[in-house]
Amino acid sequence: MVLDRESGKVQHAVFHEIGQFLGPGDLLVLNDTRVISGRLFANKIPGGGKVELLLLRQEDEYSWEVLVGGKRLTPGRELKVQGGPAAEVVSSLGGPRRLLRFSEPIEPYLSEIGHVPLPPYIKEPLADPERYQTVFARQPGSAAAPTAGLHFTRELFDSLVRRGVNITSVLLHVGLDTFAPVTEADPSEHIIHSEWCRITPDAVQIINRTRRAGGRIIAVGTTSVRVLESAAQYAPEGELVAEFEGPTDLFILPGYQFKVVDALLTNFHLPRSTLIMLVSAFAGRETILGSYELAKKVGYRFYSFGDAMLIL
Fold it and tell me: Is residue 11 predicted with pLDDT exceeding 80?
């Protein structure tokens, strides 16, 4: 679906035709994070009770913030990862979150014993786990894929480059809080957890140059939006973005004034999510809700492996 946010006009296209909506000098900004095989199985010591772990965020060489499935996982509880090292629950972080300290770094084990975490509505395991990685995924660290990028192939990138479209990458490691529903009556009271991001000097240079030359900056996914708009907070006068590395807790709601992003490629999102609020901020709430109703009528697919929306 191609949505003109000024007129509200909608067009329908096939994704490989995206080039007809882009022009020479436009810039695609990708998030080149890679989903880690962070779903692990462990047993309690003593007793042997089964535990499921989902690595969320690395705190230091040995310690991770982890989502746990299992009972009585209180501080001091020892675990043995199946096929991997021992671990200890250091502290409770609220709900099913725990800080875990492994007896040795867990990363070298992940390729052998880890599983790629999939959204709960995907019931079947993927025969090829790479289907849940973008073709440009480079930097391991995410608990979920930046799914707007799943539509691209290397051949499509080549065709866009031949049309004069430029491409650069930023980095944001996606956490599961991105997908947590907003339950507060006033969305501004929702606490959005921070995610680690980075924008390099090379990316900064091409983004600032694109704007000066009159090209459009097209964010591929809401995660790229968060990096770009976070980096704008540090930009010197006369520039669009600045080099930035660290956590961002930027929560974009309707009323937000976008400083960098001119167009957005995204999937169709869950209701009451921070993601649908971000796209509503970009295109207008009523425009987005109207386009979603149309999407349902004509059979667009929603969520991670669903269809795409290009908002111009």
Answer: yes
31 or 115: which leads in pLDDT: 31
Fold of 2-35+127-311: QueA-like (3.40.1780)
pLDDT band at 4 (very low <50, low <70, confident <90, very high): very high
Mean pLDDT for the chain? Answer: 92
Least confident residue range of 54-63, 124-133, 248-257: 124-133
CATH architecture, domain 39-113: Beta Barrel (2.40)
Q: For the sheet with 195-199, list strands across it.
A: 10-11, 2-3, 308-311, 263-267, 217-220, 27-31, 166-172, 195-199, 244-248
Q: Where are the chain's structural domains?
A: 2-35+127-311, 39-113
Q: What is the pTM of this model?
A: 0.90
